[in-house]
């Protein structure tokens, strides 16, 4: 939530003329005014803008602001394709005002900065090459990609999207990052009195599904997701609860699977771990590759996801799905002296953390693939991994959330030396 600023000289609503410096993690850029740091949205590095103060950060360490007038635009600035983007409007996207090349350059800068600051790693030096933020194959425009959208419902039952750091519902007639199938459900012309939100899911298999909230995850229907196998010889099928976790970019599961399996190169007979397994995306591909003589152990904490993972993974006899917290499960494995050849880590935004990374290293894997939606948590954990004897040797960054500040990083860690 936005904190009303207590700064007497710079109350909320003050408008300041500032020169914008670098991008910062979170969809905003740094500027300074008389010694105070401002995080300014709707701007780009190098711009001269008039910024309106919207609040302050924890402990008053910085001010938040929106660029309300651009005096000197940066080269990458464009007219936002979405009519709802802009200060005090829809808070869903952060970079509608930048062209895609600029958005990716901003994401690259954020990744480099996080690794430098949180792990002391100079990425180009560590990787022996520059970091490039890659589009998800086939996504040229960065629009019409989102297969899952939660529309908030206002007091009159109209669906819309929330403002940035705000409960305010901004009614919309379209969302330009949503799949045609999401907005084509008629959801934005209907009313949902008494609901808090309505989720629209456009799965790769079957028709789009509308799930009013509240309504409970339990009663949400199961949707079918199809993902080409990494070898391209067939398709995996995954049942997933309509409100359960699944990547929101339609090209992401296939791209991430190819990247992870390409790096890990699982061999018949190997033992693999899929930690934070969801409904079993990586476990299925690992099981296929290690074959009947191999073993895959998937660990997931969510009860419904575990049920679906067990169903989805029944074709493979060598797969075990455990419902547990990953930290507890890997601590138990490490204490029991268990070994794993390969590990996939795909934690939530908060990352895996020091204990999990340390216990994973104790299992003696020859390779670990870490799939991360927050580069800050990844950088911190890569630092812990290095302390535990696992070195970063490769990193790919995918623009799996164009127009927003989000991205997906996939890192390859191997035993040092
Ligand atoms: C980013 S999702 C990844 C899911 C899956 N790998 C995929 O690609 O579809 C993270 C998953 O971790 C699970 N999770 C979060 N914290 C956990 C924990 N401490 N222990 C076990 N599972 C956890 C969530 O329920 C979610 O399914």
Automatic annotation (TrEMBL):
Catalytic residues identified in the record: 373
Q: Which GO terms describe its biological process?
A: rRNA base methylation
Q: Looking at the record's lineage, which domain of life comes first?
A: Bacteria
Q: One MF term from GO for this chain?
A: rRNA (uridine-C5-)-methyltransferase activity
Binding-site positions, S-adenosyl-L-methionine: 247, 276, 300, 346
Under InterPro entries, the record lists:
MeTrfase_TrmA_CS, NA-bd_OB-fold, SAM-dependent_MTases_sf, TRAM_dom, U5_MeTrfase_fam
Boundaries of every TRAM domain copy: 9-69
Please provide the record's keywords in A-Z order: Methyltransferase, S-adenosyl-L-methionine, Transferase
**Family classification:** Belongs to the class I-like SAM-binding methyltransferase superfamily. RNA M5U methyltransferase family.
Query: What is this protein's record name?
Result: tRNA/tmRNA/rRNA uracil-C5-methylase (TrmA/RlmC/RlmD family)
């Amino acid at each position: 939530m936005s904190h009303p600023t207590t700064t007497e000289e710079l109350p909320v609503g003050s408008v300041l003329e500032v020169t914008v410096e670098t991008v910062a993690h979170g969809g905003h850029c740094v500027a300074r005014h008389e010694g105070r740091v401002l995080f300014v949205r709707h701007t780009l590095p190098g711009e001269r803008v008039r910024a309106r103060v919207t609040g302050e950060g924890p402990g008053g360490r910085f001010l938040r602001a929106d660029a309300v007038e651009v005096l000197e635009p940066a080269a990458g600035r464009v007219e936002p394709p979405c009519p709802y983007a802009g200060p005090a409007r829809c808070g869903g996207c952060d970079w509608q005002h930048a062209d895609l090349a600029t958005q990716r350059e901003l994401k690259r800068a954020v990744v480099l900065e996080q690794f430098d600051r949180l792990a002391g790693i100079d990425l180009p030096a560590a990787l022996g090459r520059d970091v490039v933020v890659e589009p998800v194959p086939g996504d040229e425009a960065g629009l019409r990609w989102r297969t899952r959208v939660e529309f908030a419902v206002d007091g009159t039952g109209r669906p819309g999207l929330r403002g940035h750091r705000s409960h305010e519902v901004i009614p919309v007639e379209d969302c330009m990052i949503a799949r045609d199938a999401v907005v084509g459900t008629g959801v934005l012309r209907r009313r949902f009195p008494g609901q808090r939100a309505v989720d629209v899911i456009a799965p790769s298999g079957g028709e789009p599904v509308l799930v009013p909230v509240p309504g409970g995850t339990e009663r949400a229907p199961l949707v079918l997701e199809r993902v080409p196998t990494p070898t391209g010889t067939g398709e995996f099928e995954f049942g997933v609860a309509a409100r359960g976790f699944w990547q929101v970019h339609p090209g992401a599961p296939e791209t991430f699977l190819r990247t992870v399996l390409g790096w890990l190169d699982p061999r018949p007979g190997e033992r693999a771990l899929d930690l934070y397994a969801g409904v079993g995306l990586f476990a299925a591909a690992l099981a296929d590759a290690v074959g009947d003589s191999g073993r895959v152990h998937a660990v997931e904490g969510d009860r419904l996801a575990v049920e679906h993972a067990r169903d989805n993974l029944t074709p493979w006899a060598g797969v075990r799905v455990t419902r547990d917290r990953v930290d507890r499960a890997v601590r138990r494995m490490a204490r029991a002296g268990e070994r794993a050849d390969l590990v996939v880590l795909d934690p939530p935004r908060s990352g895996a953390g020091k204990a999990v990374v340390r216990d994973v290293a104790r299992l003696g894997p020859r390779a670990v693939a870490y799939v991360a939606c927050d580069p800050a948590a990844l950088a911190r954990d890569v630092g812990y991994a290095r302390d535990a004897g696992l070195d970063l040797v490769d990193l790919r960054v995918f623009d799996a959330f164009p127009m927003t500040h989000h991205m997906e990083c996939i890192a390859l860690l191997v035993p040092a030396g």
